[in-house]
Description:
By secondary structure, this protein is α/β, with parallel strands linked by helices. The chain contains nine helices and 14 strands.
Amino acid sequence: MGYRIAVVGATGNVGREMLNILAERQFPADEVVALASRKSQGTEISYGDATLKTRDLEQFDFTGFDMALFAIGSDATKIHAPKAAKAGCVVIDNSSLYRYDADVPLIVPEVNAHAIHGYAKKNIIANPNCSTAQMVVALKPLHDRARIKRVVVSTYQSVSGAGKDGIDELWDQTKSIYNPTDDKPPKQFTKQIAFNVIPHIDSFMDSGETREEWKMVAETKKIVDTKIKVTATCVRVPVFVGHSEAINLEFEEFLDEDEARDILREAPGIMVIDKREDGGYVTPIECVGDFATFVSRIRQDSTIENGLNLWCVSDNLRKGAALNAVQIAELLGREVLKKA
């Protein structure tokens, strides 16, 4: 017997990707329903070779469903996730609403699968921020070997992280560059994103950090190790899909770059592409549609005693959101519910 699954926010970028990945990975589902707002009711959505018609989230009864993958904003999640959880349906939430709740596990299956059993406190599991998810996949195997003391990360985040409106704004502004009479002032972003980079994602905090930067700090500590010190600078770049990160690591013990490369090659979810030649590394455009987190440019940092640098790239709509949520669902089914 398979699972009954609801995908909430099925008409959005991440919701559609969740359905794609459920089908691609042949998730053992007897029933999959697509839920969205009332205005999207009846919209046709692809699920493998099948086509689903979206149903009204407001009127939906989650009773009898095993899992609900949520890909809607925090405000709507705050209303509907507790209803689903109370009905006995385990919520896997992609918003930021529950990530910092001590009673809700924040999970990246390759990193802290053991935390899955904590779901029972609220019947909710949180999916981490897209920039955090790919980074901790690379950090965990190295941390297990040499204990990471400090992480300095600069992100290069694609516009799809801001949703469909972000993608549309980059597309429209790029076209307008070649048509001066068709001016497209920024709406989704604080400054022009086409042919530009913006060192500002989410709102500013009193500390001078943005919330996106704070999320990376708090989530890395919750997922990997509370003792790790993290500082981040998060930047929006004119790329449609795929987040990149330049990561500097300081360890308690010396870790040779060759050993680090070997460790990462054997680690789950990671693909090492690291040749010291033209093109011997991965860029965002090459990671689109792939499940892996790619690591390149692994090298010693000679400015500190036990330091390494690396370059990390992943499809943010997949590992940063939809794929990780489906992997959590697979883990939940395999380790806890055990129906299929």
